[in-house]
Amino acid sequence: MPAWIVFPSLRARRRRGCTRLPRARAFFKLADCSFNYESLGLRGFTTLSRMIDGCDAYEFTYSSLEDAQ
Q: What's the pLDDT tens digit per position in 45-66?
C-alpha cells in the first residue's frame, strides 16, 4: 500500500507548493482519475477507501520540471 498520493499540477508562473488534501477530497480526485472505478462498483469503492485511509494526500504545484525537482 502506498504511503502518499500526490496530484501534480503544472502551472506557469506559479510558486512551487505542496498542500495537504483532506481524505474525502483525495478520494473523489482519485476516483475521477480511475478509469475502472465505476465498473467495479462496491469492490472499487472498498479498495479505494482502504487505500485512502492509509495514505496522506497532497496537491503539488510547480511551474517547470526543474522547479519540481
A: 888 888 898 899 999 999 888 8
Q: Within 13 Å and on the Cβ side, how many CA atoms surround 13?
A: 0
**What is the greatest pairwise CA distance in the chain?**
41
Residue range 3-19: mean pLDDT, rounded: 88
Query: What DSSP string describes 9-68?
Result: EE-TT---EEEEE-HHHHHHHHHHH-TTHHHHTHHHHHHHHHHHHT-EEEEEEESSHHHH
Paired sense of beta strands 4-10 and 56-62, if any: parallel
